[in-house]
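Progress narrative, work stream C.
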Amino acid sequence: MNLPSIHVDTKKIQRNAKTVVNMCKEQGIEVMGITKGICAYTPAVQAMLKGGVAKLGDSRIKNIKDMRKAGINVPIYLIRIPMLAEIEDTVKFADGSLNSELIVIEELSKKAALLNKIHKVILMVDVGDLREGVLPEDVVDITGKILRLPNIEFEGIGTNVGCYGGVLPSYENTKILVDLAEEIENKYGISVKTLSGGSTVNLELLKKGEIAPGINQLRIGEAILLGTDIKNLKPIPGTEQNTIILKTQVIELKTKPSYPIGKIGRDAFGKTVHFEDKGNRKRAIVALGQQDCGLDGIAPIESSIEILGASSDHMILDVTECKQEIQVGSIIEFNVSYGGMLDLTTSKYIEKY
């Protein structure tokens, strides 16, 4: 086994997918499984599909291309607005994409016509989080322009909350989509197929029965991959956690002062660091650094171990109170958050099992 490494429990991910799919199905909502958090790691994606997810989404075209190379042929959507530089790959490898810029959709139309393909578009609506999306008052007019474009299928409208502004989903901001869909249908005489109401953070609203009737899709990643909802700081009912474990090895173990010796400036990242003098402490250095993962994205499974800090390549732990015997070569295990999972699966220095 190479270290450092993450160990992905695909059986737990499969069971989580089944739980989430069934939870949403009860209210007529389909699940688009979001793979970006684990960089579309093939075994995890396959576990999602085995758990009942029938449609996938990712924010990186490279991940979508990798899924296609791995033989994954279910519908896949690019969930970040396509760059103009990636229009051709978006049409070639993605069945559809989430969009908010008419010029981008026009370019998708041109390329789809050249490639003799139909590209599906979900128009994103900004309901207050102020990330991507058309303002509600402009949606009906822009939809009319999209409907005139060749080789583009207007699939529906969607929204996102909680990722930039921290706005939580509510009946009111999901109802905006439902009302807009009704306006579009009345004006253009079409059926709006998809109302994509949000992400993992919406499951709390769904559980309470407070999501607006008519929302028929949620884009779910974290709840399936980790069984958690970091925005509400709670596990998803019925799901399993500890799906991904980080392992790394102790490369130094020494008793040292807890307060640095000498004049203190900034650390390697330009930050001013503050230290508490606790006297001499037993400190372990493990082979992991901030180049691999931010410190707030992981937590030692052994709760008596404390993360003191890290440089690019070395993480310093206080193991003075550790109940297990620590020595050079010992393996230290960590649970990971969504951010930690994203960092670790992105790092080329972390093996995946």
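Work stream C, second folded protein:
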Amino acid sequence: MANETILVVEDESLVALELKEDLERLGYRVPEVIDKGEAVAEGISRHNPDLLLMDIRLRGCLDGIEAASLAKAEFDVPVIYLTAYSDEETLRRAAMTSPDGFLLKPFDEPELAANVRIALSRASGGESLRKELRGAMALVDALDEPALIADTTGRVAHANAAARALLGTSSYADLDRASLSSFLVLPADAVAASAASTAPLRRDPDRSGPTVANITKLLRSDGREYGRLVTFGSMERRERILLESSAAEANAAMLGFLPGSDAAGPGYKVGGFLDPCRSGSGDLFDVFTAGEGKIAFYGLDVMGHGLVASFLAFSLRDLLPVIGGSGTASVVSPSEVLRQLYHRYCRTGEIGTTFFTIAYGVLDAESGEYAVVRAGHTPVLRLEAGGGVGVHDSPGTAVGIMHEAPINEARGKLSSGDRLLLLSDGLLETFGGEGLIKDDIGRVADFASSLALSSLEDFVDAFRRRSRESVAEGGTKDDISLLVIERR
């Protein structure tokens, strides 16, 4: 027994105590019992567990399946589900997250021991994908052009639909673990040496299609390689520059993408800030016109950090105006935009490879009426000119967890002097809570209310100072961002 650390997530105190005692009797370390899905990420950060035992039905905004999916995406930790429910829908949702075990309550200690031992053995044997490589898979799903990800040995880990069509395959399995050399004429050092190289295709199913592949190293923040991005044809120069830049250069580029104060048009003013983490920001927000007289806005947070997270956020910045109806006469509803994102970024019947949270809304410029959806993102706040605060906290699942998920639109109206706030979870954390959204969002709401009479510039500056002071005291590895839209 290696005295592995196991984190128990269970909201029934007696069951949790029994689990803790059983696991410690088996020789495992159980440093904490967590009873809410929102607190899982912070618990993982504190204890770096080898395994999660996750109850499916939990109090709070996140159930066990959603919390486990986010934990697997961000921390690559194995999960065993615990549940008293065996209905088909629960099992289907749980299966889509590729769990490492499933225990139906009530279960005995030998059954618990066997499941834990198997899950830990699989994890130590390297069966779970590395977090970095899985995160990079999100990148190819975000591209319309043919692209794939290969591991450091030059074998395909993931390809998007366009790449499979180009290479004449009909399914992911056809390319799974295939060598790059089976369809590219590779120089001897293409996979092992240079940071970027090109190689011709061995066959070109469409003579009018691309005939050359671009191969780029994917590097961790410490400079070590963890895979290769292979694109076919011409990647836009700005995308290539971003992908091959340093983290500092990528962050500078992301800051350059933020909307200006007039982005929402006459009658409105936009403010906000982004403090990116040093390894590369996955946070981004924007405002753009979407249909006649309509303004679209969003805040998003790509799971993880680094250049891949920055690149995916950048790609989403290009994609969202397209599916949101920018430049057309008709507006696309927030629900439909989110539905398209769910379908685009999660393959049917298996866990998705892309994980990001987003709050997306559409505002009628004349009436001030708006609708907003939330997919795993921090709740949206409406600050009234007089200081009252409304919270749009409808439930939502992060994009990439499921092919389909319930979508709930929240609605409201901005009057003169009112403000909409879209904040990242990084900003939420700087308000000193314990990772529980309901408590922390209350602190943010109180702070916003105290600033209701200040100018938009002073309002944003106060939030930025507050967050930076908190970071200086306690530190954070997360991106911190805030978007504010004010009706004049």
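The CA atoms of residues 111 and 164 lie 42 Å apart. No further action is required on this item.
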